[in-house]
Design the sequence.
Protein backbone atom coordinates (compact mmCIF):
# COMPACT_ATOMS: atom_id res chain seq x y z
CA UNK A 1 0.00 0.00 0.00
CA UNK A 2 2.74 2.47 0.94
CA UNK A 3 5.50 0.79 -1.14
CA UNK A 4 8.11 1.02 1.60
CA UNK A 5 10.14 -2.19 1.52
CA UNK A 6 11.93 -1.42 4.78
CA UNK A 7 8.62 -0.76 6.54
CA UNK A 8 7.29 -4.13 5.39
CA UNK A 9 10.32 -5.99 6.69
CA UNK A 10 10.20 -4.13 10.01
CA UNK A 11 6.52 -4.94 10.51
CA UNK A 12 7.21 -8.60 9.70
CA UNK A 13 10.18 -8.66 12.09
CA UNK A 14 8.14 -7.21 14.95
CA UNK A 15 5.11 -9.39 14.29
CA UNK A 16 7.00 -12.71 13.98
CA UNK A 17 7.69 -13.18 17.72
CA UNK A 18 4.36 -11.58 18.65
CA UNK A 19 2.40 -14.06 16.52
CA UNK A 20 4.55 -17.04 17.47
CA UNK A 21 3.31 -16.86 21.07
CA UNK A 22 -0.48 -17.14 20.54
CA UNK A 23 -0.21 -19.47 17.54
CA UNK A 24 2.33 -21.75 19.21
CA UNK A 25 0.40 -24.67 20.62
CA UNK A 26 -2.48 -24.32 18.15
CA UNK A 27 -0.68 -24.61 14.84
CA UNK A 28 2.62 -26.05 16.09
CA UNK A 29 4.30 -27.07 19.32
CA UNK A 30 5.67 -24.06 21.21
CA UNK A 31 9.45 -24.22 21.56
CA UNK A 32 11.09 -21.64 23.83
CA UNK A 33 14.48 -21.93 22.06
CA UNK A 34 12.88 -21.34 18.68
CA UNK A 35 10.99 -18.38 20.13
CA UNK A 36 14.24 -16.92 21.50
CA UNK A 37 15.90 -17.38 18.10
CA UNK A 38 12.99 -15.61 16.37
CA UNK A 39 13.15 -12.83 18.95
CA UNK A 40 16.92 -12.43 18.50
CA UNK A 41 16.65 -12.34 14.70
CA UNK A 42 13.83 -9.80 14.92
CA UNK A 43 15.82 -7.59 17.27
CA UNK A 44 18.86 -7.82 14.97
CA UNK A 45 16.78 -6.88 11.93
CA UNK A 46 15.30 -3.85 13.71
CA UNK A 47 18.79 -2.83 14.89
CA UNK A 48 20.22 -3.16 11.37
CA UNK A 49 17.36 -1.04 9.97
CA UNK A 50 17.89 1.90 12.33
CA UNK A 51 18.92 4.20 9.45
CA UNK A 52 15.84 3.16 7.49
CA UNK A 53 13.68 3.87 10.55
CA UNK A 54 15.25 7.31 10.83
CA UNK A 55 14.57 8.01 7.13
CA UNK A 56 10.98 6.77 7.48
CA UNK A 57 10.39 9.10 10.43
CA UNK A 58 11.91 12.00 8.48
CA UNK A 59 9.87 11.15 5.37
CA UNK A 60 13.02 10.61 3.30
CA UNK A 61 12.83 6.84 2.70
CA UNK A 62 12.54 5.89 -0.98
CA UNK A 63 9.56 3.88 -2.21
CA UNK A 64 9.58 0.78 -4.38
CA UNK A 65 9.57 1.75 -8.03
CA UNK A 66 10.62 5.32 -7.30
CA UNK A 67 13.37 6.67 -9.54
CA UNK A 68 16.55 7.78 -7.83
CA UNK A 69 16.95 11.51 -7.47
CA UNK A 70 20.12 12.97 -8.94
Sequence:
Amino acid sequence: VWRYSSLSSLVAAVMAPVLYIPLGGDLWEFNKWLFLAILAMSALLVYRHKLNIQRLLEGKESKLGQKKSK
Observations:
- The two ends are 26 Å apart (CA to CA).
- Helices lie at 5-23, 32-48, 50-58.
